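Blinded run. Sample ID left blank on purpose so nobody reads anything into the name before looking at the predicted structure. Input follows.
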Amino acid sequence: MAAHPAAPKRNLAFPAIGALMLLAGLGFGGLRLAFLLGSETAEGEVVEIVSLKPAGQSTRLGYPVVAFTTPAGERVRFTGSEGSSPAAYAVGERVTVRYRPEAPHEARLAGWGSLFGGHLLAIGLGLVFLWTGIKDPRTPPTA
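Blinded prediction complete.
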């Protein structure tokens, strides 16, 4: 009777990293969903583009500064959380804003990328890392 070859050792780093990324994406996504459920919308206007160089990056990114007015008449300005090069918005552009009435200065742009982009990326990468780490390493790739 032939001996079975020993199963290769599994590296647990990939599934562990994947699980952490997945949990972080789901957790922060849940917080964002709670924000959306308790928020209101307003029309805002991009009043400025600020050029910032994020830590660890060599390129400066343009971040939109948005102004909007709450129904109570409070004028609010905030800087968008996502920058790009070139800037994704233009001064004078009308945008939709989401904010909590009790904390209007914590407003966010209402686009999918701004609201869920980072969470969806973390969830997607987490699933890839998890799948890569738990699939049977003896299974040959299919063509």
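Unblinding after everyone has recorded impressions. The chain is about 35% helix and 30% strand.
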